[in-house]
Structure formats: structure tokens, C-alpha cells
Write a structure and sequence with these properties.
The protein contains 18 helices and 6 strands. The chain has 408 residues and is α+β, with helices and mostly antiparallel strands. Helix 7 runs antiparallel to helix 8 and helix 17 crosses helix 18.
Length: 408
């Protein structure tokens, strides 16, 4: 069986090794050819016997070849050893160790290796951003200058959390802040402390600040309209307008003497979305697709004369329900519209991959959310063995206002 190899490792450090550099030019080349012979033979570092056949192959004479090998031995690069077949042969020192495959650990370390100067630079700019920050609990905002994008978060240790954010946006390609970071670089990151509050207040204050900046800048929060923020915003706006709720929340909060004492200035407001009964235009691509299918496109007169539920459904779904089914939709959704619950119902419906014009399906989920603002589609599968809904959890404590009860 032919065990010969067709390549060897040749290390770049050969240029700086005095044992090789001080050899005559012909002896240096002989060392390279000896490495190739040992690799081809694949016998642990032995080269073939030095005879006329080998000398002919290397285009030299036996005496010259033996003299060059003795020269290599004088530099510690080769030695005569007894071969297992009982014959004395030339053996290249440390050949087997240097040609052995790299271990998985060595390959991983090599792939993660970064030049020392680059490591120092990466660490320096991150430390300049997070080191001055407090280690107390509070709400913060990471902005990316020139992009109108920002992330609002909260932590019981602001400094440590910001440090983690900076590391993640640099090292994790799919991180929510990696794209804006690559667009502006380290010097385009701005960090503001919006509030320093007790840990028990973090949830409410983060929700407040997300609501305050929503629509004014592009928030990168993955849960900006998620269940947690959605429930609190819904409770805060059921009996007040959005502006009144925001003013009341901030006034009451400052009366208690909590918070940072200084509110970060909000960016220049942009025009608010159209009111509930105004239909929102859809992109030209969707308009063309609808026209090809023969879908009816509403005109101003149709929108103004339509019941409120029709306008809201059109705005949330991007599809005009049509006058022919308007009476049925009004009867199904009721006279008093809970826009917050309907917004959440349409959002969950679309995120679940359902058809946005399935009005009855949306109505069913709307009913569930009106009964329980915490309802999710997964709750449909939490049933008992007899098909009935699972019994609600029993509380074992009376929770303080704003906290969650302990259940079992």
C-alpha cells in the first residue's frame, strides 16, 4: 500500500532560524529536499537510504549528499538513527512533531486570534463608553448618531449592561444593534441615562420611555410593541388620551421625588399617524397587486362614510373590507370599539402567518384579548384532558400595586 504523502508543512519561521540561515546555500536547499523526502516516505522523519538511486534522483553524487547531511547534523537538524528494518539511516529532528495535525483547540485559538494592537483598540473605545456610567439601576438609551435609530433598555447595573451591549453588537453579526454599529462605527454611539430609579421601578420607567419615544425615532427594541409594554400602555390609556396619560405619569413620578431629576430631551416630533377613521395609503406595489386581483380601492367619500371599525381594520390590515360586509362586521365587533385590543389582535394574527382579510378570525382573537389582555395564541392549546380550559392558577400572596402575584 502506497503511504506516500504529497505535501508537507513548511513554517515561515525558517527565514529567521540561524541554524538554517548560516548554512551554505546548497546545504539549505538540501534541507528542504530532505523535508520533502521525509514527508513523501511518511516514516516518522526517516529519509530513504543514501545510495546511487537517491543521489540520481536529487541530481547529485552520493559523497556530496552524505557531506551535506553531515552538515545538517552539525546544526542539529538531522541525525543518524537505526531504522526498524535494522539499517542506519538519516533522521530529521522533530519532523513528526512539526508535521502533526493541529488539534481542534489549536485551530480554534488560531481562528480567534486578534493582533494585540487591534485588541487594545477594541477594548479602549468600549471602556471609554461604559466606564463613566453608574453601576446603579436605571433606564438608558443607546443612540446611533445620524441614523435616527436607538435602543432603550433598563438594568439593575447600567454599566455592566452597557458593556454587554457593546460586546454583543461588535461580535454577534445578527444582533439587533450590529447593523447600526457598522454604519456609524464606535465614535457614532451615544449613551444617555434617562432615569436612575430603584429596581422595583425599572419596568414602569422603561415602558414610559419607550412610549415617549415611540414614533419619534426608530426604536430597535424587539419588544417595543410586545406583550409586556403593550399591557401597561393599554392600561394607561384606557381612560385618558395618550398625551394626558404621559403627562400624568411623569407628574406623579416626579412628585414622589424619584428618578434622575432631568428628562433627556426628545427628538423633534414628527407628524403623528392619521386618526382612527382615516384610511392609510398602501405602497404602490401592493396597490398594483390589488388592482390586478380586482380588489376595491376606497375613495375619500367611502372612508368618511364608513363605520369606524371599517376604517380601523383597513388601516391595521392594509385591506379595505368593503361596503357589502360592513354591516356584518359592525354587528360582529360591536358598537364600542377597543382599538388597543383590536391592534393587538391584528398584530398577533399577522405574526402567526394568517390571512389578513380573515375578519372572523381576527374578531375571535379580538374577543379573547378583550377578556384577557395577556392572552396569546398559545393559550388555545393549554386545555385539560376533557377539552375544557385549564384551571386558573391560585394565588398565594396579595401583590403590591404594580407587581406580579406569586402563583402555584
Amino acid at each position: 500500500m502506497d503511504r506516500r504523502n504529497h505535501w508537507i508543512k513548511l513554517y515561515v519561521e525558517i527565514n529567521d532560524d540561524p541554524k538554517i540561515g548560516l548554512l551554505p546555500v546548497n546545504a539549505r536547499w538540501r534541507f528542504i529536499s530532505a523535508l520533502a523526502l521525509a514527508g513523501e516516505l511518511d516514516d516518522g522523519g526517516f529519509i530513504p537510504p543514501v545510495n546511487d538511486e537517491l543521489a540520481y534522483r536529487l541530481h547529485t553524487e552520493v559523497e556530496t549528499l552524505q557531506a551535506e547531511m553531515r552538515m545538517l547534523a552539525g546544526r542539529g537538524l538531522a541525525e543518524l538513527r537505526m531504522h526498524p528494518d535494522g539499517e542506519e539511516r538519516w533522521f530529521l529532528s522533530h519532523f513528526a512533531e512539526r508535521q502533526a495535525p493541529s488539534t481542534p483547540t489549536q485551530r480554534a485559538q488560531k481562528s480567534r486570534w486578534t493582533p494585540p494592537d487591534k485588541k487594545a483598540a477594541d477594548t479602549t473605545w468600549r471602556m471609554e463608553l461604559y466606564k463613566p456610567l453608574p453601576k446603579s439601576s436605571g433606564v438608558y438609551m443607546i443612540s446611533f448618531v445620524g441614523t435616527n435609530k436607538a435602543y432603550i433598555g433598563s438594568s439593575k447595573d447600567i454599566q455592566r449592561r452597557i458593556q454587554a451591549h457593546l460586546t454583543e453588537m461588535v461580535n454577534i453579526p445578527g444582533h439587533v444593534m450590529s447593523g447600526p454599529y457598522r454604519a456609524v462605527g464606535p465614535r457614532g454611539i451615544d449613551i444617555q441615562i434617562l432615569d436612575e430609579v430603584p429596581e422595583s421601578e425599572l419596568y414602569d420607567r422603561e415602558t414610559y420611555w419607550i412610549g415617549r419615544y415611540q414614533g419619534q425615532i426608530e426604536l430597535l427594541n424587539t419588544e417595543s410593541v410586545g406583550k409586556r409594554h403593550y399591557r401597561r400602555n393599554a392600561n394607561a390609556t384606557n381612560s385618558l388620551t395618550e398625551t394626558e396619560a404621559e403627562t400624568e405619569t411623569e407628574t406623579e413620578y416626579r412628585k414622589r421625588g424619584e428618578g434622575s431629576g432631568a428628562i433627556a430631551p426628545a427628538p423633534t416630533p414628527t407628524p403623528r399617524p392619521a386618526s382612527i377613521d382615516t384610511f392609510q395609503p398602501i405602497p404602490e406595489e401592493m396597490r398594483a397587486a390589488k388592482s390586478k386581483r380586482g380588489d376595491v380601492e376606497p375613495v375619500a367619500g367611502m372612508v368618511s362614510a364608513a363605520p369606524p371599525i371599517i376604517g380601523v381594520l383597513a388601516r391595521l390590515s392594509g385591506y379595505w373590507p368593503g361596503d357589502d360586509i360592513a354591516p356584518a362586521l359592525v354587528a360582529r365587533f360591536g358598537d364600542v370599539l377597543d382599538e388597543v385590543a383590536l391592534t393587538r389582535a391584528v398584530e398577533l394574527w399577522r405574526l402567526s402567518g394568517n390571512k389578513p382579510t380573515n375578519w372572523l378570525g381576527i374578531a375571535d382573537w379580538y374577543d379573547e384579548l378583550r377578556r384577557d389582555p395577556e392572552w396569546t395564541p398559545q393559550a388555545r392549546f393549554k386545555r385539560g384532558s376533557n377539552g375544557a380550559s385549564a384551571s386558573p392558577a391560585k394565588t398565594v400572596s396579595n401583590p403590591a400595586p404594580g407587581s406580579q402575584p406569586v402563583t402555584w
